[in-house]
Amino acid sequence: MTAFRCATAAMAVLCVFVIGLAQVALTHTKDSLDSIRESVKAGKAVIVDVREQNEWNAGHLKGAILAPQSKLNSEADVADLLKKLPKDKVIYTHCAAGRRALVCGDILKKHGFDVRPLKTGYKDLVAAGFEKEEPGKPDARK
Predict the structure, then answer these.
(1) Structure pTM?
(2) Does residue 96 contact residue 126 with C-beta atoms inside 8 Å?
(3) Distance between CA 75 and CA 86 in Å, rounded?
(4) What domains does the chain contain, in order, with CATH numbers?
(5) Is 5 helix (H, G, I), strand (E, B) or coil?
(6) Are 59 and 133 in contact (CB under 8 A)?
(7) Count of CB atoms within 10 A of residue 126's CB?
(8) Shortest CA distance to 142 belongs to which of 70, 42, 49, 75?
(9) Which of 18, 41, 114, 133 is most deeply packed, by most CB within 10 A?
């Protein structure tokens, strides 16, 4: 009977460990900005801006897709928003400083996307050479 209890306890611990691994939150990507830029240029990846509409309007990256955190958190908006995102490409989420990129990355991951959140925020991405959309120019990916 003691061996049975030990085996049962060991299985319980193993189950908790496995379930815990499955629920590990995303971390910021280790991909270099140069490799990200090349993946986007080659059509293997897209950049998803999870900042809010007013932040997007103040400036955004050329070719980025707007998917505000508020809409990703809204059951009424999320289904339509997810239709805009490609499941066959890597998705790099970015925001102003990296926190929302992680939160939204978790949401997208739960919907089956290959997500790699960026720690680098919008201003630093522009400073690193990512192209800004010209002000006033309409963007079809919005």
Answers:
(1) 0.80
(2) no
(3) 20
(4) 26-127 (3.40.250.10)
(5) helix
(6) yes
(7) 15
(8) 49
(9) 133
At position 103, the amino acid (one-letter code) is V
Amino acid residing at 108: L
Gap between the Cα atoms of 78 and 108, Å rounded: 10
Q: How is the chain split among helix, strand and coil, in percent rounded to 5? A: 45, 10, 40
The pLDDT profile of the chain, 142 residues, written as one tens digit per residue, is 565 554 555 454 444 444 444 456 789 999 999 999 999 999 999 999 999 999 999 999 999 999 999 999 999 999 999 999 999 999 999 999 999 999 999 999 999 999 999 999 999 999 999 999 977 655 545 5
């400073």: which residue's tokens?
Answer: 127
Q: What is each CA distance from 100 to 31, 61, 88, 123, 124, in whole angstroms?
A: 18, 17, 23, 15, 15
Q: CA-CA distance, 61 to 46, in Å (whole number)?
A: 11
Q: Is the dihedral of CA 92, 96, 99, 103 positive or negative?
A: negative
Cβ atoms of 107 and 85 closer than 8 Å: no
